[in-house]
């Protein structure tokens, strides 16, 4: 773990169509309009940010890249189009308990169903594997079929689900079960 007052360094990740840049407070201005879309939150247990200023303050906290108690690393990347630099969403990994990566992603609605979530998530997980992270979990709303399919394609399996309606599903994977090669285009 980094020293007490040292911010962990995060790399920029690149794929064929995307550049994943470490999130900073300066990203709030570009991200706020898309994150204000209430439809984006259909399958999430979250609300749109109240203001660009509130989002910038939240991003400033995440910029530390480590929790206040130093038990977690917060790795958040802005997903950008390689061609235009336009933000398309974000992918994040909370690294906890040494070798556990908690994965989450959000793709702005106008970029849905184009394979960007899978491409960005593969890049983030590949980086985490290089960092010796061995186990991964993701939490998904059971109605979010696209995310359920994506995680299954990546080698995740349902690990647990609540019995109450609307309770999220938890998916798990490890180094051996992951499938990170892009799917063949049909």
Automatic annotation (TrEMBL):
Q: What is this protein called?
A: Acetyltransferase (GNAT) family protein
For this UniProt record, give its keywords in alphabetical order, as a comma-separated list: Membrane, Transferase, Transmembrane, Transmembrane helix
Q: Which organism is it from?
A: Caulifigura coniformis
- Which InterPro entries does the entry mention? Acyl_CoA_acyltransferase, GNAT_dom, N-acetyltransferase
Keyword flag Transmembrane helix: yes
What the entry lists under Pfam families is as follows:
Acetyltransf_3 (PF13302)
Where in this chain does the record put each N-acetyltransferase domain? Answer: 18-181
Molecular function in Gene Ontology:
acyltransferase activity, transferring groups other than amino-acyl groups
Task: Please list every transmembrane segment annotated in the UniProt record, as residue ranges.
Answer: 90-108
